[in-house]
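Pasting two entries for a bug report.
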Amino acid sequence: MERALIFLFSVLIIYVHKINTTELEIISTSQFLTEGDTLVSETRVFELGFFRPDNSENRYVGIWYKQISVRTPVWVANRNHPLPVVSPVVLKIVDTGILGIFNNNTIIWSSNTTMTSPNATAKLHDTGNLVLMDQQGKMMWQSFDYPTDTILYHMKLGKDYSRGIEWRLSSWRNNQDPSPGEFTWEADTNGYPENKLKQGSVINFRGGPWKNFRVTGFKYSLNLTLIYTVVMNENEASWNYYIENSSIISRFTLNSSGEVQDWVWEEAYKKWTLNTAFPIDICDPYNICKAYGTCSLDTRRQTCNCLDNERFVPRNQKSWEAADWSEGCVRRTPLDCVNGTDGFIKYSNFSLPDTEGTWFNMSMNLEECEAKCLKNCTCMAYALPDDSLGGKGCVHWFKDLIDMRESANNGDIFVRMASSELVALSTSKKKDGPNIKVILSVIVTGVLLICFISTWLWYVRKKKNNEQSIKGGNEELQMFSFTTISTATANFSTDNKLGEGGFGVVYKGVLEEGLEIAVKRLCTTSNQGVDEFKNEVTCISRVQHRNLVKLLGCCIKGDEKLLIYEYMPNKSLDSFIFDENRSVLLDWPKRYNIIKGIARGLLYLHHDSRLRIIHRDLKAGNILLDHDMNPKISDFGLARSFGGNETQGNTQRVVGTYGYMSPEYVINGIFSTKSDVFSFGVLVLEIVSGKKNRGFNHPEHVNNLTGHAWSVYNKGRTIELMNPSLAESCHPDEVIRSVAVGLLCVQKKAEDRPNMSSVVRMLDGEGALPTPKQPAFFIGKDSLEADLSSTRSNQAGSINGLSITQLDAR
């Protein structure tokens, strides 16, 4: 009875305290915070209190901006220890000087302070730093030492060697759960310091070597100057930033999808505006070009090049030509350091390689740096890492140079070369005109001879039977034995069946080494599928991108023709967005990530792959989802590739899927990259709404989905298009932007539609959006079917009600 009275009395105290909610400027041992109370900074920039993320049932103690209408947590105390709503909890300082969250007398979270002080106090600074001080005002603990997913001005990223503290960001698990997710943004100090984005232990992106610099630019109505500063001494290695105009509010965050983002608050619009985000382009994935390879966004025939095509060559030429850069480049001439005759060649306009394992000395000049590197046969290159230090600073690399990209206005790197390469370089500079002409004439003759021989060999190869043509055209592709695949799929057991489509079945399999695969088995009675099989092997074996499904190999035995893909555990996008029960598993951040991922995959196909590829059958069923719900474009059976300056084609055999095909393709058989853009626009509207374009029903009109989207957009009610299940997780400005981009993509005239590079920029929030025109096929579905039927009767080809390639590797 006595215990019950004590409990009721304590609850009553908390209840009374909660009725009289207060704003404290300091917490002492005689004060505490409960739900409804806040601790505010001196000029009321930040406040600390209890909050619930979105519609979560759990409570957390966190810090957010007080005067910003959109509550934005920047730090969470008990991210690993959620507090149920029903539990009475308080934040207080105990007599020993520890700040903690208590449920009755049970401590849920604490500052874990090693120092003790009987009269400690806690104060929230205007920087957003929660500081615990002893009675003399000495700092005992601070929240800045334990970042969550956000960096504010004056916060640090790096390591404090003297106190054994590491400052790094870790993403939230999702927008309702602030517990540490799978992504971290941290400093790699095993060599010259640099920031790295990791997914678990895997590096996804590298920020580059630290240096002091200023970045000036405009973002909408704001003039931004970001100043980055670096500290490197025996006590710490740290990086931080601030904005020159102190009235601008900015924060760096690491989101649950693995993006590092810089947000700026625009008071005029009452919203956070995305300033920059990484990773963003096809050269951002870590070490995509491997040893001595460099990534370029300007090249059109391939993404990777060797650092120097005269002195470095691909380790595997055939794989390299097929856009498989996994083996990187090697030196054409090995180093001969033992003879002491090596030297260095300067390369400019490249980002510096990964600095892990490097040696550095910030007091050396360039000449001293070169001399020390030359004496060490294991030193592969040297450079000045920071051009703001007046020519001081030296970094030595001892391993292969990796993760480089072409980048203007970068510093120089000096790479070690064999003496013969240095002699050849010197000699080439001294060649006179007549000798060059002789050499060129010999080269031209040799090239013509090689071309003649190559053409003859190609002609002979084309005369071989169908099986050999497939193998010979893709010699770099792994050829699996039929026995291996049969064993992996338990003899194509129906239990392993993933799906069935126009010309075969897809099975799940497991190879002996444990690798999960998806096997597309061509139906032996389908003559139509042979061409699609060849086409898919030709197209997809030559492209490689994180948003494209990866073809691992194929198998040909008699009438049996199999394609072997990486296995996608979450199957296809349509199985989520069009399913009432499963659609709730895709909240808005996941859907927006999927939209952007598809856009980047198409950008690669249209602009950055070795061959320009038009997919021709982009739809929800051909978007596969990996373990983390990242999208991968699949099914290239209908794709067409172009070389050179070709941008469009024409066909009398119109194939595809109703609801996704552009008007110029349906009516005239003309397809181009803008045909894929149209399909992408339809797909975006389907992802936002969760409804199919074809078969869409609305009680107030007979429009299809694009017509309905156009209607609500013109009425200023775009948000109504969004699936109701997204209401709690959505960012309205992202939804509105997505719908506007979708409508821009489905405009009637191909020339009015944006290209995919513009689409990617628009989705990333760069610049104002153009006003879309009336979309194609915005009329009701019955009228559309009649129009297509009339069109179809006048064509030599036919349009199938379903795509002829309905099955995919899942």
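Entry 2 (this is the one that rendered wrong in the viewer):
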Amino acid sequence: MRTSSPVTVGRTAETSLLRRTLTRLQSDGGRAVFLVGEAGIGKSRLVDDCAGRAVAAGLPALRGRSSATGADTPFRPLAEALYSCFHAEGPPEDAELLPYRPALGRLVPEWRPAAGPGYAESVVELAEALLRLLGVIGRRSGCVLALEDLHDADAETLAAVEYLVDHLDRVPALLVATLRPEPGNALDLVRGAERRRVASVAALPPLTTADVGALAAGCLGVPVGRVPSAVTGRLAERSGGNPYLVEELLAELVGSGALRRDGDGWRVTGDLAATVPASVVHGCGLRLGRLAPPVRDLLLAAATLGPRFSVDSLQLVTGDDDPGLFARLRAAAEADFIVPDPGAPEGYGFRHAITAQAVLESVAPAERAALARRAAAALRKAGPPYAADHGRLVARLLVAAGDHHGAALLYAEAGRQALAEGASASAVRLLERAVELAAPADRTAATESLAYALVEAGQLDRALALADTLPTASAAALSPEREVALRTRLAWAAVVAERGSDTVTQVAAARALLRDGGRPEQTAALAVVEGHLALLPGRRDRVDDAERIARETAEEAERTGPPVLACQALQLLALLARERGFDAADQCLERMLAVAETHGLPNWRFEALLRLGANAFLRTGDARRLEQAGEAARELGSLVRTQHTESLLAMNAVLCGDPAAAEAIVDRWLDTSLRMGNLATHRYLRLTSATLAAHRGRRRDMERELRLFRQAGGDGSLLTPVVLGLCRAVCALLEEDRAGAEAELTATAEWEALHPSVFYLSGQYGLAPLLAVLAGRADWAAYEAVAGAPGAELAWNRPFLALARAVLLGRRGRGAEAAAEVERLRRDPDLFPTAHRLGLRLVAEAALADGWGDPVSWLRTAEEYFHELDVPSVAGACRALLRQSGASVGQRRTGRDRIPAALRERGVTPREYEVLALLVDRPGNQDLARRLSISPRTVEKHLASLVQKTGAADRGGLCRLAAELAPDPRRP
């Protein structure tokens, strides 16, 4: 008879749900379907059916399975799923996946770029990378990701699955996952997804009696009516409607001879009640007893390793040579106990988890413990490279053998290794198990490691509470040095979380332990932590002490180490020094960069490049260092850092008048940053969009983006100077609402008075002084007070301050000097084009009033720019001022876009440009009049106007200019 039915029975609703979801991927988007049911209820059969249909339709199908023996191996089922689909060809070579390749390399190490060590991707980064991969491979017709036995999954996998479930609607992918209805994190995930209506959940009920008859008929290879009714009734009664148990019980009936083939049917030849075992375990024991002793021993050893096992591990435990081992594996497979593992080329698995459990329970507890003890000893004896891979398996075997002490040590070691690899959730789980099993003498060390893991997992409250439970006076207490290190780490985590009171508490606890003052590096590390507190409001009186200590710490750490402490101290020193200017801050950051590169600290290298890049852009407008920081983030494989760096580059593009580049960055990362929970970057991207709208004079768009910025969650108050000064104030000026702009700048100044800031683009060091000078509220003394501040160094502020100086010079009758200030700015108009043209519009008004410079030319330049930018208020104001000055104002006729910008700024009209273009051939006035269908007198007027506007000496000069502007006929 067959070992299982060739058809699926009793699952019509579930099969229809999967087929319907699969066929609607392209139209409706992705969806998750969870199949929940007890062991053996038929979950895997449904997954097989779904994956088979997908493959038949040409859809990629990725399959992975969790295992009780690998429950603490981060991302195991996801790694297996990727391997099942890409082991032969590697990942898709799609440009969209390039930023995500390092994160995907966490699942498949062969995919990680060679330059990628030093950064452990977060679960969110990896999940986003997997989401993008599914989007790419399913782009044509969809794809399937099947994950089985989620109840055995590691914490990182569950977190990644939850992320995928919430965002699958963005990609054409079906996630089908199976799990048992056991209380735990996996079931909580499913119930939460069901409540949020982002997943479909199918709870598989037991088969009906009719379904059991159909299943038995499929196994026996006969029509439903040819299965004896007594057999169907007994199977239904004893199996409880569980398909796996039906098959096992039926196999036992046939194997014992109680049910025999009779022609084209089957008949009962024995006592069903007597021959049917009391339990599957008993039946499994009977089947084992029929096998040769070497095969039976192999199956017992395999079951000891778990429902799934590798050939290498089994060989280490049994000591069999290859030919003998594989011969026994074939015999066990023929007996229907095990099957090859499709997800692992050298792996096998029991046909069902129940089978492995039944094999073990077929022997006495003492024998099971002895088997586990021997297996653990064999795996430990093997040593590297097996020791690291088998550590968690050995720990589980030691628990089964009753050696809790040895198991606790291995769980603690595995937890520390997981923490080093960045799998903080798994580290917490492993270390919690270590604490649970440890003897009192070992519990303190495991608790210490657990506190570190909780910090990395973002569970600071639990870490702080756990640290307070550590013994302090007994022999089990941590040494003062280790507790000081722990308290310092907790204090640093509190600084990052902006929890000042917790920082103070942890620093005080550490200092209380350093009764003799402690070693220099201990006190230095604490001092650096305390130094960050000086940056908080209410603690500014401590800045000088903090800076002195940071400087001393940095110098000592650069000489003697540790290098990370040197980087921390230099970072703090740069923050403190920037309030006095950028030179000292950049010197600190360059030292920090050198330390990071010398000692191979890629994370700190990125931090140094990012801060140097931000400073360089602020000072000069040069974004090359920021681009280097972005490349460093990509080398690390950090999506969060890449997003953060690119958000700064987007704001750079806004200020530099490159809206297309800014929009491309925002479009690329806005939704992704929100999905990943990177709220700080998401808010900044929203603010960048608002600033882009403001710098185009689009108030409605600006207000919408600011509203979304405020709704994005988190504390965005530190960005208030941007909102008021760089965004709202500029928008008001582009609406010709100078009073509104000054009100926004006043609000900025009031906010910064209460919240000292080193954000110097708020307008207080450039735009606000210029408006104050124009309004007559600021004199030379006020100007010089601002010009001497560090913020005056910034490239964005310098033009506004220079224009303020020009206005003051003009009012003193020093027109030539004033005009020279403006002309110096006009030599580099494209660094910040909007600011440059807005400044020209503002200063031209003062120049007209005071009679200096070339305000007509400045107004033409500004009018041309704002007309092209579609900012009608400023363009209209420029035209009004031109008319007041008596200058001609060009009409906006068709063809104006063909006029070179330099001539448009001089007021050349489309008709005048037509006349100029015809002068290439040096025609006479009569010829020009005939070609243009105008009078010779009109031609003379146009020529005279062109001479005046272009500065040409005469008609010959106009002809030479026409020749220079004419297209080269040799160019394609």
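Dev reply: Rendering is fixed now. As a check, the viewer should reflect this: Residues 274-278 have pLDDT under 50 and may be disordered.
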